[in-house]
Amino acid sequence: MDATTFGTHEFVIAADPILARQIESIIHYSDLHRGLVHVQGKIVRGRVAYNEEYPFHLDPDSITLFKDGVKQCDASAFEVEDNIERMGVPNSGFLADGHWCPHSLRFIREIVYPFPSARH
User: Fold this and answer.
1) In sequence order, what are the residues at sequence separation of 6 or more whose Cβ sits closer than 8 angstroms to the Cβ of residue 24?
2) Domain assignment present for 42
3) Which of 15, 76, 88, 114 has minimal Cβ neighbours within 10 Å of its Cβ?
């Protein structure tokens, strides 16, 4: 695959340059920590060019990394997709605040893609 080809079932995030360098370090230099560091952020409904497979993406401005977290925001990308109508709805029982912290996602590789510009 070249740098702009995405694999099946890969969930792609848009990371600002500072976060991208942290993730690149995890991928390339810290195999020991690759599965211990996770990504979290606010879900936005809608497809984006860099993550076309899923009908949602993470707001690039909300993305952070964490090592340990609460399980109430944990779900697979497939679970989010299956419950997208309930996500972000108070008292829905599924990611009611729209915050997602998928513990099962792991960093595989960096994809070079233009970082989305700020929306005004």
Assistant:
1) 110
2) yes
3) 114
Give the model confidence (pLDDT) of 25-81 as tens digits: 888 776 555 557 889 999 999 999 888 899 999 999 999 998 876 678 999 999 999
Residue 75's domain spans which residues? Answer: 17-100
The verdict on residue 120 lying in a domain is no
Burial class of residue 58 in the structure, from the number of CB atoms within 10 Å of its CB (0-12 exposed, 13-18 middle, 19+ buried): buried
Q: What is the pTM of this model?
A: 0.80
In a domain, 116, yes or no: no
The answer to whether residues 99 and 75 touch, using CB atoms and an 8 Å cutoff, is: no
CA 25, distance to chain mean position in Å, is 17
DSSP 7-27: -TT-------HHHHHHHHHHH
Using CA atoms, how far apart are residues 36 and 34, in angstroms rounded to an integer?
6
